[in-house]
Amino acid sequence: MMCVRWNGINDRIARAGFSAASFPRHGGMMQALLSPQAGNAVSGLVRKGSNLGRMTLLSVAVGVTCGLAARGLETALQMGTRTIIGSVANPGGAGILRFNWLVLLYPALGGLISGLLVGLFCRPTRAHGTAVLVDAFHHLGAELSLRDSVLKAFAALAVISLGGSVGKEAVIAVLGAAIGTSYAGWLGMTPRQRRLFLIAGCAAGVGAIFQCPLGGAIFATTVLYREPEIEADALMPALIASVVSFSTFRVFGGQGSRLLHGADGLAFTKPIELAAYAALALLCAAAGILFYYCIAATQRLVRARRLPRWLAPALAGVVVGGIACAFPQVMDSRYQFVQQALDGTSAGLHSWPGWTLIFGLVIVAKCLATGAMVGADTAGGLFGPVIFMGGVTGALTGAFLTAFFPGTFPEELRESLIAVGMAGVLSAALRTPLAAIVMVMEMTGSYGLIVPLMLVSVVAYVAGRWWGVYPEQVGGPMESPAHAGETLVTVLENARVRDVAKTVWPFVVQPGTSLPQLLAMLPEGARPEFAVVEGQRLAGVISTADISRVVDLGIAQGAIVAADILRPAPAVLYPDDDLYGTLDIFRRHNLDALPVVQGANADFAGMLTCREILQFLRQHLSGQREQLLREHAGFASLNQEALLAALLSEFPDPQGEQVRRMNVPEEAVGKSLRQSDFRRRHSVQVIAIETAKGELLSPPDPDRPLNKGEVLIVLPMLR
User: How many angstroms separate the CA atoms of 238 and 261, rounded?
Assistant: First the structure.
């Protein structure tokens, strides 16, 4: 009795002016703030553009958070590299072959810290670095652990500060992506929506820490694919989040500085210089390929030795330390060596052939060192090392031309090759040519080099794209599981609840409807959902299970009315809601029917069932199929084969005989199957007729005249 009467209180609450429909349909304070139906105060507003408004607000929130995270990470990295590895070595200088015990041991210590944090406290992932978010986008429903991302950020901070050859972009890219998808998850968004903010978070992090807001957005929307494709739906939230993050980063850290000083005055002037840039493009592709094989070799070695997750990064750190004793430039995370190559101020070398040799050895050393750490699953990324290798590849090309063709090329070309080389290796290794062009222009200010940047990025991409370092990339959107059923999703997003909801619902009752009356309305074999309506306002709902529980209590049925057993609707729909989001509400609440309300008073407007949405999809697919067969005649043959297969599944295959096709014989043209006595004359059973237009007639009309060019589908007769 208490259960029944307690539910009756719901009706009294409703009489006081409150109802289930007065509350947000998704639950939670944040949902209430962002939902277009957040309470009666806003339910009467025009809903057009509300999705754009919510996307903008969330993009701004993601941008602010990622900007603060990027600012904190950058500050910590500056302090760490300056006070730790910077105190025992000069990674930006030209000196080589200087053994130092601390240089040998520091990267190993960083690898050990990374191994312990990542190997013992983070869940294993199938990918490494930025590829983690690529894999999450395509295969994991945009699920990224925020806790693991934070731990990996601390691990990467230790690795880089101690001289490890990894980059900072994966740290902030994955952390930003985790922030974006976590925000979307807390608001109950669908996997499709979470993917948008996973990309927005990546764009915000990369755009802030590398000071390239447009490049960050393009990078985040293109790094998902091997081919030059863009995730167009995510471009707007990525742009908004990246701009906000970039601005937040600058508010808390000043104007910042460019990646290279002095590159903003460089410009392309003479078309003959394109020959030098073409050679640079091929060298960039070669550097990317070498880097790919270094990573692959380390991964094979780790698997073959079955090294523990916590130990492999430490051993990789020992390798890096040994390489750094010969070439300390591999520990340069601030691009100081590249800057000195641009300025021509490095000491210790006085001939361009010597420069050429040093630059070549540094590229090989950087590939080996970074490949060892990345292949051992050390925290950190490879974007920064790739940029470094690109700059040194450009310096190598310039030094070679200056050494062996003195006086032929101007000094400005040698400097320009350094900035352009960054984009070349980035395009080849990461397979992001468009992002490489924009990011390098923003990071270096070299807008005057747009022509060689385009040439080198495209040629390097074409030459080296088969050896990209992110195997998690897929060819394009059509190959991504994230875009499975894209056409149906678009249809459901464009359709509205008002298009399919039943405005006349046979199971609408008043609060005073008695229990016997409810029982009398129950159809045999069905479990309907009753809508309790007071006046025009939805007061609550009653399910068949609710009625069964009351009946089982043994209370006098005449004393029970609908107001006593109604309960607030677990969720309500609005006429302007899209069907795709509505399906997710059905899933989360495990319901088959939901009430539709409208207006400030939550007036009852009908009910929507999953069956109606399914019927809507069937009608749409049927129309699409007919349109497909009209527009593309070649598909008709496939269509007929599918229909024939379905037809033959109903027939036995006696004596192992095969179904055959036969053209209408000359003597049967113009006659029907009955007139030509086709069954007896040819000893076959005609089960279908395929007309000249490709239509399949089954079962065949025995009195229909047969036409020339038609095909008969026949089964041999039993003998």
Answer: 28
